[in-house]
Amino acid sequence: AVHIVGSINIDIIASLERLPLPGETVMAGATAKLPGGKGANQAVAAARMGAQTRMIGAVGDGDAGRWMRDRLAADGIDVSGIEVLEGQETGTAYIAVDAEGENQIIVVSGANARLRPCAPVDEGVLLAQLEVPVATLLPVFAQSKAIRILNTAPAVAGARALFEHVDVLVLNEHELGVYVPADGDDDDLARRARSLLCRDGQAVVITLGANGALAVRSDWHLHVPAVPVIPVDTIGAGDCFCGALAALLDEGRCLEEALPCASAAAALCTLGQGAAPSMPTRAAVADLLLG
Ligand code: ADP
């Protein structure tokens, strides 16, 4: 199974003509409420790829938390590992999007910041991101015998302590720039990615948007091209990539086999609006790869 330790948020999205300047009020037509949080998004992606998926996270004890649990359960995700924290707010992202698709986002961590470590995971795949505390993830990663995937998003200080306990690190170019700043005109991505390796057997995967992804180990590298699409909105593409990758590794596929399929899933995710709602099914990914 895929065991996901991560954030559960409600995304409140307002569409505006243009984003407000400091001190300014801008009127929006309407708001949309969507399930979100990198943990929850990746869980939906893994479940739709066909993995038995368990979400480990925390929500508040109000309607928002119940709504999120129901949304995840509706995708067939095991929600028994979601703690309901009394008196806490469910994580909430307030998102403003302008007519060009540019956005401003405020995230209230709420219950996510109070998630406690879960029991070690000794089968299948453990997958986490950094919207929950590093101190919560550290004992879980250090003690688990599952295949451990860490998506180091968002880039946070102190995350490096986790890296030695990870089998596959997944990060985008922006996050790579935070952990390993490009050194002058040296944009050798493979070298920068390799500098994150702590031991033999580890892999680092850098996602490159429309340029696909680059995977490295100490003695090996692979560039996986993106599947050409005309994106509607790329929100959630990275989450889709991680969730799909976890599902495929859980099936026993090797990284070389899993990456092209994760890349195809992420390309499909860019064709729909929002994150969780646009995660593709396994059948849609198979059609794209065969077609
Ligand atoms: P993030 O969502 O974290 O910014 P990326 O933009 O690197 O991450 O996207 C993650 C993955 O989604 C990429 O590795 C690629 O497989 C896929 N993807 C993203 N943008 C596109 C695009 N424009 N066309 C095709 N695939 C894309």
Automatic annotation (TrEMBL):
EC number: 2.7.1.15
Binding site for ATP: N172, T207, L208, G209, A210, N211, G212, G238, D239
Residue positions of the active site: D239 (proton acceptor)
Annotated keywords: ATP-binding, Carbohydrate metabolism, Cytoplasm, Kinase, Magnesium, Metal-binding, Nucleotide-binding, Potassium, Transferase
Localization annotation: Cytoplasm
Primary localisation category: cytoplasm
Source superkingdom: Bacteria
Regulation of its activity: Activated by a monovalent cation that binds near, but not in, the active site. The most likely occupant of the site in vivo is potassium. Ion binding induces a conformational change that may alter substrate affinity.
Catalytic activity: D-ribose + ATP = D-ribose 5-phosphate + ADP + H(+)
Cofactor: Mg(2+)
Pathway where this protein functions: Carbohydrate metabolism; D-ribose degradation; D-ribose 5-phosphate from beta-D-ribopyranose: step 2/2
Group of enzyme by EC: transferase
Cofactor binding: number and manner: Requires a divalent cation, most likely magnesium in vivo, as an electrophilic catalyst to aid phosphoryl group transfer. It is the chelate of the metal and the nucleotide that is the actual substrate.
CDD domains assigned to the protein according to its UniProt record, in alphabetical order: ribokinase (cd01174)
Residues noted as binding K(+) in the record, renumbered to the chain: D233, I235, C269, G272, G274, S278
Carbohydrate kinase PfkB domain span: 4-282
Pfam families: PfkB
PROSITE patterns: PFKB_KINASES_2
Residues the record lists as binding substrate: N9, I10, D11, G37, K38, G39, A40, N41, E131, D239
Function comment: Catalyzes the phosphorylation of ribose at O-5 in a reaction requiring ATP and magnesium. The resulting D-ribose-5-phosphate can then be used either for sythesis of nucleotides, histidine, and tryptophan, or as a component of the pentose phosphate pathway.
HAMAP family: Ribokinase (MF_01987)
Family assignment from sequence similarity: Belongs to the carbohydrate kinase PfkB family. Ribokinase subfamily. Belongs to the carbohydrate kinase pfkB family.
The protein's name: Ribokinase
Species assigned in the record: Novosphingobium mangrovi
